[in-house]
Write a structure and sequence with these properties.
By secondary structure, the protein is mainly alpha-helical. Helices cover about 75% and strands about 0% of the residues.
Length: about 170
């Protein structure tokens, strides 16, 4: 086992742990704490991209997601003035239903992965970290999805502004 393998397991474990702490944080019910764990999960995913020699994706992951999107999340949290949530009682039916649903999705996913043999018969990648081919592909073949994502982000920003406005009565 070499250093790359060890780093992969460290980054993968950090990504899974921080991702779980975003949703179920035992330390604090404050949404800012969950946003900080999301930053850590995103940074550890960027480490996984570096291990795959996808340096451009790692840089975009850090700049766009850990920078801009997390700042936007924190801005929305501060605008909405969310208080620390009170602990609620867990309802047995909801807990059992959620557990059954997650188990069913996990079993189906693992079964389809086992049957699919992912990556079998694919040629080796030619470029490592090249951005010219990515840019050409993004703005020629995938220009419609690119524009749809930009419109969705615009609608999300307008929705945040409308939701955060206080009623003036």
């Amino acid at each position: 086992m070499d250093l790359t393998d060890i780093l992969f397991f460290v980054f993968a474990a950090l990504t899974l742990l921080c991702g779980a702490l975003v949703v179920a944080n035992p330390f604090s019910r404050n949404p800012v704490t969950s946003a900080m764990f999301l930053v850590l999960a995103i940074i550890s995913m960027a480490g996984l991209f570096v291990l795959l020699h996808a340096f451009f994706l790692a840089a975009v992951q850090i700049i766009v997601y850990a920078g801009a999107v997390i700042v936007l999340f924190l801005f929305v949290i501060m605008l909405l003035d969310l208080k620390e949530e009170q602990r609620r009682r867990i309802k047995l039916f909801g807990f059992v239903g959620g557990l059954v649903s997650v188990t069913a999705v996990l079993v189906i996913s693992l079964d389809s992965l086992k049957a699919a043999h992912p990556g079998a018969g694919l040629p080796a990648p030619r470029l490592e970290g090249g951005t010219a081919a990515l840019g050409k592909l993004l703005f020629t073949q995938y220009v419609l999805p690119f524009e749809v994502v930009s419109v969705l982000l615009l609608v999300a920003m307008v929705g945040v502004v409308l939701l955060s406005k206080k009623d003036l009565k």
